Amino acid sequence: MHTLIGKSEAIQIVISVLAITLAMAIVFAGLDGALAYPKEFVLFLLPILVTMGSGFILHEMAHKLVAIYYGARAQFQMWIQGLVFMLVMSVFGILFAAPGAVYIYAEKITKRENGIISLAGPTLNIFLLLIFIVLQKFAPITQYYSFLAPWGNDFQGFGILYGALSVWQFGAAMNLMLALFNMIPAFPLDGSKVMWWNKWIWGGFVLLLLILGAVLIQPGIVISWGIMLLLLLIISRIFFRGGPK
């Protein structure tokens, strides 16, 4: 009997989700903060797992399900080098979220199908973003972590205010960041394949993400991410004219 997720794939998924959860926690807590407040750090892993961990793996599973719908074979594969690099970089306060990805195998797949498969992941992140915003409105959860206090109010839009963490606001912001990052039009990110398929759909989707960021998270995100996406768009058109293979 065929199963949607095999045992080996399930193990790789669990390892990847736990790794990205740990890396994200280290980025925000800092290695010194994690060592100074070990009990708080362990508790901090739970909201990260629920919000960012779920966003990462459901993003990948969305790719897989849509690929299967189009008749392709798809499997999540852990990238050990990326996983190790992600954990190392987290110690320096940088999140390189690349512990693995869904690999798609098909004899023939059209640009349209490839674009839709790629768009499925960021779309799932928007769905989670909206769920977290609703939860923040009607069932807010706030937790205090000593190692978050130094952030002050710089990340208030991300749910962090002088050590207090608004869990659902944080989850909404992280899923927005995950969607925006993946829509960067540089291969092999999702954005390159969506743009290769339809530039207008890519532009409209990115605009939607920026509007959601301005309205639900913080207005400054429109300027910073807009400039970054524009620069990366120019770079991608120079180096990846032929589109994804």
From TrEMBL:
Keywords: Membrane, Transmembrane, Transmembrane helix. The chain crosses the membrane at residues 12-29, 41-59, 79-104, 116-139, 159-184, 196-217, 223-240. InterPro entries: Metallopeptidase_M50B (IPR052348). This is Peptidase family M50. It comes from Candidatus Bilamarchaeum dharawalense.
